[in-house]
Every structure is written in C-alpha cells, then in structure tokens.
Design goal:
single chain, 10 helices, elongated, mainly alpha
C-alpha cells in the first residue's frame, strides 16, 4: 500500500496551462460581474475574491488595473463589432446589442465616456481606441441622411442615452435606455448580447 504524505493530501493537482486558462476565464467573468455594478474603479481584491483566486493569481494574468479592465471591455466592444459585421446587420440591431451592454455594465458606460473612463482604472489610455471601434461599428450602418449622421451626433446620442441608463435593476436600466432612444427618434432592435 502506497503512503501519501500530508503535504500531498493538502495540495491539489497542478493542472498547469489548463488551470491558468480557467483562472483567467474566472477572473474575466468575475471582473465583468463586479464592473457591471461598481464600474471600473471597483477594487481588484473583490474581483479576485469573486473568481475564487488570490490576488497573486490575478496579477499573474493581469499586471495592473488597466489590463483587467481592458480584457473585460474588449469583449464588450468585440460583441458590438461582431454585431456590426454580421451579414444581416442593421443599425437597429447593432444598437440593440450596444444597449444590452449599456444596461448590463456600468464599465461599458464609462468606456463610452472616454474622457472620464475611470480615474483609478488606468483604462484612460485605451478607452478612446475602444470607443472609436464602437463608433465605427455603428457608423457603418447609418443610412445616408440619418438624423445622427453628421459630425459628432452619433456618439453624442450614445453619450446621452448612456447617461440615462440608471436604476437598481437591469430591466429598469434597459427601459430607460430604450426611452432615451425613443426620445431621440432612433429605432433600436431587440436588446440582447450578440450571439452570432
């Protein structure tokens, strides 16, 4: 009969790269949830705790606050871009995806206000580039002569709608976002994440 030392019993098996990938995914998921309610200035310790890892693991994957925020916001922006690139994409459909992210995430709202996108988050350096990607995705579907087609009107409208996205529940935030789009006279498709 083989004997196991006490140290062997306490230490879980090392899954190597698989554990690293799982930890990173758990951190991004936890950061998305924490940022959704607390914005980009949420404490990193809360993210690590929610992911079930230590802060050392967080810093192994993300060297600073900006890297965590960028990983989460990059996924939001990627979904808006994917919605815009879909074969049957329409402005209303892309706005529906963007509105879902607005209703879901205080951090995404911060991104769209790139000039004030989280004082402590460190996202300020990459926020303008991410915001520009959102604008490109939307602008590509503006029909000629659309009311938001001139100069900065499109992103001003997005900023106005994102400013209206308040409330204690996701449903309330979505209701207010849709009301703001209606007041601007802009049609929005189904509010949902992009699913391909």
């Amino acid at each position: 009969m083989k004997q196991h030392s006490l140290a062997d019993e306490r230490r879980p098996a090392n899954d190597g790269p698989r554990a690293a990938a799982r930890n990173r995914a758990a951190l991004v998921s936890a950061a998305r949830a924490i940022y959704a309610t607390h914005g980009l200035d949420a404490p990193l310790s809360a993210i690590a705790r929610r992911a079930g890892v230590g802060q050392g693991v967080l810093y192994r994957h993300f060297p600073d606050r900006a890297a965590v925020a960028t990983a989460v916001l990059e996924e939001n922006v990627r979904q808006v871009e994917q919605a815009a690139a879909a074969e049957d994409a329409t402005l209303a459909g892309v706005l529906g995806v963007m509105t879902w992210h607005l209703s879901e995430s205080a951090a995404f709202i911060g991104l769209l206000h790139a000039d004030r996108a989280g004082s402590r988050s460190g996202i300020g350096d990459c926020a303008p580039a991410l915001s520009e990607r959102v604008e490109r995705g939307l602008r590509g579907h503006l029909p000629n002569g659309h009311r938001l087609g001139s100069a900065d009107d499109l992103m001003l409208a997005v900023a106005m709608v994102s400013g209206a996205v308040t409330g204690p529940t996701r449903e309330e935030r979505e209701r207010r976002a849709l009301a703001a789009w209606r007041l601007l006279g802009v049609e929005v498709g189904p509010v949902r994440p992009f699913s391909g």
